[in-house]
What we know:
Number of helices: 5
Strand content: 15-25%
Structural class: alpha/beta
Order of helices and strands: HEEHEHEHEEH
Shape: globular
Amino acid sequence: MKKTMSGNKYEVALDETWELFGQCMSGSRAGLCCAVSSEPLSETAAKALDSSLAALGYGREACTCVVSGDLDQQALFILIEGLDPLCIIAVDGKSAALLGQAYHLSLPSGKATRLLGRTAVSFLDFESLLKTPQDKQIAWALLKKLPKFGDKRSQK
């Protein structure tokens, strides 16, 4: 694909990211949020993330899902920076560890942190938290640490 000087540089980066890593990505092409998992998300987990992000003001289908299984830390860094999401969710411990390696920091489970200015939250196992109402509340409590879309704190 030929890039022109009149094109938007962010759109070019997004296009190139999808060309390079499209085989391990799904969901929104220009997601406001990026969910990284070591294995593909179940339909239940994907719907739960979609509903949670909608409740936070991001709208429906606001998430780009990345399966990090075949990626190394450098590739994951390039992928995330090419997508340039507003926030990041590490869906499981393996993806959290790889994100930590990519950004040279520790992603504490159950807490919000920052990755180059983006809010990120990390789960040990998001899917397992969807099995009981109590565990769903734990997952929701962590997801609520992401900035609400349009919240002035998320624009700093």
